[in-house]
Amino acid sequence: VKVLPNPPAGVRLATEAVCVMFQLKPVKKNDPNTPGKKIDDYWETSQKEILNDPKALLDRLFNFDKDNIPDRVIQAITPYMEREDFDPVAIKK
């Protein structure tokens, strides 16, 4: 997955959500559709911070303190949870 320059939308969405939960900052990139506008791109962050070491990612996920998630993270992750395409079965395909 890490070497994919343009991963499937579900993979991109899932890794973006993990970055949000781990409070990792996205890379700001130029929006190809709107000149002069920047967009958040989590794919580069995902590759560098979470996909570079699968064992470390699993350890981090298993040890994630789900009972003490800061309110700002809850607010940031809520839109992902409400998306219809944020579904493990759909992403797995």
Report on the architecture of this protein.
The protein is mainly alpha-helical. It has one domain (9-92). The chain is built from 5 helices and 2 strands; from the N terminus they run H-E-E-H-H-H-H. It has a two-stranded antiparallel sheet. Helix 1 crosses helix 2. The longest helix has 13 residues, at 9-21. The protein is globular.
Q: What would the keywords be for this entry?
A:
single chain; mainly alpha; two-stranded antiparallel ribbon; 9% strand; globular
Please render the helix and strand layout as text:
Layout (H helix, E strand, L loop, with lengths): L8 H13 L5 E4 L7 E4 H8 L4 H9 L8 H11 L6 H5 L1
Antiparallel strand pairs: 1-2
Helix pairs in contact: 1-2, 1-4
Mean pLDDT: 92
Number of beta-strand segments: 2
- What's the structural domain tally? 1
Order of secondary-structure elements: HEEHHHH
Strand content: 5-15%
Outline:
This protein is mainly alpha-helical and 93 residues long.
